[in-house]
Amino acid sequence: MAKKSRKRKVLDLALPIYEVKITLQNINPPIWRRVQTNDCSLDELHDIIQVCMGWEDEHMYAFVIDDEEFGNPKQGGEAEHDSRYVRLSEVVEEGHICFRYDYDFGDDWRHTIDVEKTLPAEEGARYPRCVKGERACPPENCGGPYGYPYFLEKIQDPEHEEHEDALEWVGDEFDPEEFDLAEVNEGLHHLRRWLGKRKGKHALQAVFAKGDLVRVKLEVVHDQYPDIPLGGWVGKVKRMGWLTPIGYAVHWTKPTLD
User: Fold this and answer.
1) Which residues pair with 34 in a beta bridge?
2) Domain match, 36 and 102 both
3) Does residue 169 lie in a domain region?
4) What's the CA gap between 191 and 53, in Å, rounded?
5) Phi, psi at residue 253, to the nearest 5°?
6) Whose CB among 35, 47, 89, 258 lies 3.0–4.6 Å from 39's, allowing a Cys bridge?
7) Whether residue 73 sits in one domain with residue 39
8) CA gap 78, 61 in Å, rounded
9) Tens of pLDDT, residues 11-62
10) How far is CA 182 from CA 17, 162, 189, in A?
């Protein structure tokens, strides 16, 4: 029997709330959170993920969308795009409803970000809010998804030679099955006052949009090739680089020097 193709989700982009499931990859049983948020920058989504999962924001991160990386250049790293100036709504509008969030490039924690649905805003509700989740976030610096099972083995086996050291390192107790929804939402409550208010968060304004036709001014020449006139070429913006300043990848289609 032929295998049924997976039906593509269709989201109503007119609705203002995004329901997002965050799942830690390569961990079984799964560790996941479901959060509802209004539109935000990817850098703000990073903050939301940190609080919901239980990470401590000690390391660099990157969103990986269609093989391109989005990160905060102030944290270092070599991401192609600045996550402070790209909105979740823009990502979804381009059809990317499932992408990746990488945290701590040493331990290499990878998360699947699945935009499950859009919703109307609930009267009296404050966003972002976590609505469900399962299991505790692994401790920072425990070795990633392949070191975490060994860490659990050490703290759960009193006979293990590193049992006492592991317990002391993690703070004397750690329950991998624990998830406190109220505690997560308390953290989001404190985060909420900062979202959308950080200086420079949305300061960049793009002059062109993807798909726009652009044109080089007449009599413009390249500094290194003054004998080759560029003026009059017409092109289409194929990609945008959300850096400072914004970069544009243009496909030049035809000259109009005649």
Assistant:
1) 21, 132
2) yes
3) no
4) 14
5) -100, -40
6) 89
7) yes
8) 10
9) 887 889 999 999 999 999 999 999 999 999 999 999 999 999 999 999 999 9
10) 20, 33, 10
29: which 2 tokens? 């049983």
On average, the pLDDT of the chain sits at 83
Same domain, 185 and 228: no
Where in the sequence is the domain holding 131, given as residue range(s)?
17-135+179-192
Supply the pLDDT for residue 232: 62
Bridge partner residues of 210 (DSSP): none
Residue 202 within a domain: no
The helix (run of H) or strand (run of E) holding residue 148 is: helix 144-156
Q: How far apart are CA 185 and CA 182, in angstroms?
A: 5
The answer to whether the beta carbons of residues 207 and 185 sit under 8 Å apart is no
Report the pLDDT value the prediction gives residue 172, as an integer from 0 to 100: 79
- Does residue 25 belong to any structural domain of this protein? yes
What pLDDT is recorded for position 126? 93
Q: Are residues 131 and 73 in the same domain?
A: yes
The answer, yes or no, to whether the previous bond of 245 is cis (omega within 30 of 0) is yes
Inter-residue contact 42 to 195 (CB < 8 Å): no
Return d(Cα 139, Cα 122) in angstroms, integer: 34
The whole-angstrom separation of Cα 232 and Cα 71 is 35
Please count the structural domains in the chain.
2
Q: Residue with structure tokens 């289609």?
A: 253
Name 149's Cβ contacts closer than 8 Å, sequence gap at least 6: none
Residues 11, 105: contact at Cβ < 8 Å? no
| CATH number reported for the structural domain that contains residue 83 in this entry | 3.10.290.30
